[in-house]
Amino acid sequence: MPGIAENLSAVRADIAAAERKCGREGMVRLLAVSKTCSPGQVREAFMAGQCEFGENYVQEALDKIAALDDLPLVWHFIGPIQSNKTRSIAEAFAWVHSVDRLKIAERLSAQRDPARDALNVCLQVNVSGEESKSGVAPADLPTLAEAVARLPGLKLRGLMCIPEPTPDEMLLRSRFRLLAGLLADLRRRLPGAPLDTLSMGMSGDMSLAIAEGANIVRVGTAIFGARAAHSATQ
Ligand SMILES: *Cc1c(COP(=O)(O)O)cnc(C)c1O
To answer: Does 134 contact ligand 1 (Cβ within 6 A)?
Structure first.
């Protein structure tokens, strides 16, 4: 079985190939999704040159971040956010991709230490209509984005989506294209905001997402192997 370093090389090669295909060389960052992985596996990925990691479960992430605090890692929170976890997220992470409500954004902003850089935030958009529960509806996005852009502890960087699983590549591409269009629209509405991030694409669909303009892909399985179902409580 290939190890983490080999998997990372293969994923990087796939990203580079997808970038070349659409003339976007060097435009895509790899976020290694390390949920359910051990600190040892994250360390192995770091030794192979990976610095940015994504986590879904707050308590698991806090333990891992503490165990790895000798390394210069950049942590991204990408999971559902409960309001009683915002303080931990605001303290331990550099990025949050999964903000979809103003109340959560306000708490993250208020709880971010003002002496530190603002917390980088992407708004999660529900691009699949009724088939998905998380994410702000496209129609409600402008109002949410305008409010989040005003919060002093946050830096609104862009949008994130998790389309419904489907083997239909045309459908998936249309979901990614929708997110890219929504970001272009927000750039017109909020000309001063640093809206440079489209977080979309995972192990199974990152090439499609890159073709539609992704600049962060979130990849777990293709780097760390298949996960067991998550059973820990948050
Ligand atoms: C788990 C997860 C990923 C990675 O998924 P893989 O299919 O393992 O690459 C990406 N984004 C989010 C939000 C996730 O929860």
So the answer is: no
Query: Distance from the CA of 233 to the center of ligand 1, in angstroms?
Result: 18
Entry pTM: 0.96
Tens digit of pLDDT per residue, the chain (234 long)?
Answer: 779 999 999 999 999 999 999 999 999 999 999 999 999 999 999 999 999 999 999 999 999 999 999 999 999 999 999 999 999 999 999 999 999 999 999 999 999 999 999 999 999 999 998 777 799 999 999 999 999 999 999 999 999 999 999 999 999 999 999 999 999 999 999 998 999 999 999 999 999 999 999 999 999 999 999 987 655 443
Directed axis angle between helix 39-47 and helix 58-67, to 10°? 60
202 lines ligand 1 (CB under 6 A): yes
Q: How far is the CA of 195 from the centre of ligand 1 (A)?
A: 22
**Ligand 1 atom showing the smallest separation from residue 33 Cα:** 4
- In the reported structure, the alpha carbon of residue 34 is separated from the centroid of ligand 1 by a whole-number distance in angstroms of 9
